[in-house]
Amino acid sequence: MERLRLCYLVPAHHLLDTVGPSRNVLSLAAALVAQGVEVTVAVRRVIRATLPPGVRVVELDPTAPLPQEPRDDAAMRALGLSEFGRYLTALHRFLAREGRTFDVLLEKTWLLSGTLSRRAFALGRVGVPVENFIPDPARHGRTAAKRLRLEVARRLSRRALRSLPRILVETPELAAAFTRTHGIPPERLVVMPLGIDRSRFRPRPQAEARARLGLPQDRRILLYVGVLDATHDLEPLLAALAAMGAEAPADLEVHLVGDGPQRGTYEALARACARPVRFHGRRPHEEVPWWIAAADLALAPYRAEVFAGGELGYATMKLPEYLAVGRPVVSVPSGRPAKLIRHGESGFLFPNRLHEWQAFLRALPARERLAAMGEVAARTPLPGWRETARICLDVCRELLALRREAA
Question: For a surface tag, which of 75, 131, 232, 265 has the fewest beta carbons within 10 Å of its beta carbon?
Answer without folding.
Answer: 265
